[in-house]
C-alpha cells in the first residue's frame, strides 16, 4: 500500500465560451488526492494522509476517496474549511490555478497528528504546496525523515507559485524533502519555474540526485519523459492524443509510475537498488500512456488499469 500525503481540495473549473467565462463546475481535486485515486484505479492499494474538512465539501472529498477504494484510516478530519482552487484553462488546454485556502483543512495537520505506520505501507508520496505551507510542511518533513530508508519515498514538487510564495525559499525546502527520497518526479514546467526557462534539465536532475534520490524523472508533456537513474539517462517519447486539457496529467504519470513498480517488483525500500533499465523504461512508457489518456479527457479523470493496459500491452 502507498500512503499519499498532501492536499484534498475542491477544484472550481471555469469554462471559456467565446471569450466569456459563463460556466463553472466544482469537482473533487488536489494533486495528492488525484494520485491516491490514480493508484487505486491502477490496482495499487493506496491510503490518504492529509487534512479533510468536516464541511460539505470535505464530506464530498472523503466520500470520493472511499468510493475509489482509498483507505482513510490516516486521514485527519477537522472543522477547518476546505480549500477551493479555481482552475481556468487556456486555448491549448493548459491549466492555470488560483487558491483560496489560508488556514484551511489541508494545511492544518501538525507533528502531533503523525501516527505509526502499519506494515502494509510500503511507500509514501509527498507533493504539491503542502510541502511548503505550515504547519503541515513541517509535519510531513518529520514523517519523511522518520521513514527514510524504511519505505520507498517519492516526491512530486508540482509547483503552485500563487501558494508557495518565494521560489528561492521553496527550492531550499524541496531539498530537505529530496534528502529523504528515493524518487523525484517533476515536470519540465516545475524546473523552469524554479530555475528559469533556459535551465538545463539534465544538470538540475543531477543536482537533485546529489541530495540522495537514485531516480529523478522529468515529464515533458507531448515530448514524453526523461529519467536519470544512477548515472544513466533514459528517454521515452510521448503518445499523440487529442488534448482536451492537462489537468491531472502529472498526477496520472506519478501514480502510474509507482503502480508499475508495485506490479513488477513490489514496494520494498531497496527496490531502486537493482532496478534494470528495461524495467525502468517499461514503467516510464506505462506512465506516459496513463498521462496521455488523462489529457484526452476533460478534468482530472485518471484512467483505470484496463484503460492503460489496453494500450500498453499492444505497443
Describe this structure in words.
This protein is of the alpha/beta class and 315 residues long. It has a single domain, classed as Ribokinase (UDP-N-acetylmuramoyl-L-alanine:D-glutamate ligase, 3-Layer(aba) Sandwich), CATH 3.40.1190. The chain contains 10 helices and 14 strands. An 8-stranded mixed beta sheet has the order 4-1-9-10-11-12-13-14, sandwiched between helices. Helix 1 crosses helix 8. The longest helix is centred in the last third of the chain and has 19 residues. The two termini are 28 Å apart.
Q: In CATH terms, what is the fold-level topology?
A: UDP-N-acetylmuramoyl-L-alanine:D-glutamate ligase
Mean pLDDT: 92
Strand content: 15-25%
The largest sheet, given as strand count, sense and whether it forms a barrel, is: 8 strands, mixed
Radius of gyration: 18 Å
CATH superfamily: Ribokinase
CATH class: Alpha Beta
Number of helices: 10
Oligomer: single chain
CATH architecture: 3-Layer(aba) Sandwich
Structural class: alpha/beta
Total strands: the figure is 14
* Terminal residue distance: 28 Å
Order of helices and strands: EEEHEEHEEEEHEHHEHHEEEHHH
Task: Label this structure with key terms.
315 residues, alpha/beta, UDP-N-acetylmuramoyl-L-alanine:D-glutamate ligase, four-stranded mixed sheet, 10 helices, 24% strand
What is shown here, in short?
The protein is an alpha/beta fold and 315 residues long.
Amino acid at each position: 500500500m502507498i500512503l499519499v500525503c498532501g492536499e484534498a481540495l475542491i477544484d472550481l473549473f471555469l469554462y471559456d465560451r467565446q471569450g466569456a467565462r459563463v460556466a463553472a463546475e466544482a469537482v473533487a481535486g488536489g494533486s495528492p488526492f488525484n494520485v491516491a485515486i490514480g493508484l487505486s484505479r491502477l490496482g495499487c492499494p493506496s491510503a490518504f494522509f492529509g487534512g479533510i474538512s468536516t464541511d460539505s465539501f470535505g464530506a464530498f472529498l472523503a466520500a470520493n476517496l472511499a468510493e475509489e477504494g482509498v483507505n482513510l484510516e490516516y486521514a485527519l478530519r477537522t472543522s477547518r474549511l476546505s480549500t477551493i482552487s479555481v482552475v481556468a484553462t487556456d486555448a491549448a488546454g493548459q491549466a492555470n490555478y488560483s487558491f483560496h485556502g489560508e488556514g484551511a483543512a489541508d494545511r492544518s495537520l501538525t507533528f502531533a497528528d503523525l501516527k505509526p505506520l502499519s506494515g502494509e505501507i510500503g511507500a509514501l508520496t509527498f507533493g504539491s504546496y503542502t510541502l511548503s505551507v505550515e504547519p503541515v510542511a513541517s509535519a510531513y518533513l518529520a514523517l519523511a525523515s522518520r521513514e527514510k530508508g524504511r519505505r520507498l519515498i517519492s516526491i512530486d514538487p508540482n509547483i503552485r507559485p500563487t501558494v508557495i510564495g518565494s521560489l528561492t525559499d521553496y527550492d531550499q525546502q524541496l531539498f530537505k524533502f529530496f534528502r529523504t527520497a528515493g524518487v523525484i518526479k517533476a515536470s519540465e514546467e516545475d524546473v523552469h519555474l524554479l530555475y528559469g526557462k533556459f535551465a538545463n534539465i539534465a544538470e538540475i536532475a543531477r543536482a537533485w540526485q546529489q541530495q540522495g534520490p537514485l531516480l529523478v524523472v522529468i515529464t515533458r508533456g507531448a515530448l514524453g519523459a526523461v529519467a536519470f537513474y544512477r548515472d544513466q539517462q533514459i528517454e521515452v517519447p510521448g503518445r499523440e492524443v487529442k488534448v482536451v486539457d492537462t489537468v491531472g496529467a502529472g498526477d496520472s504519470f506519478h501514480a502510474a509510475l509507482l503502480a508499475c513498480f508495485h506490479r513488477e517488483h513490489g514496494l520494498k525500500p531497496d527496490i531502486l537498488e537493482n532496478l534494470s533499465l528495461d524495467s525502468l523504461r517499461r514503467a516510464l512508457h506505462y506512465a506516459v500512456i496513463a498521462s496521455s489518456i488523462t489529457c484526452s479527457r476533460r478534468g482530472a479523470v485518471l484512467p483505470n488499469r484496463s484503460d492503460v493496459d489496453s494500450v500498453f500491452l499492444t505497443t
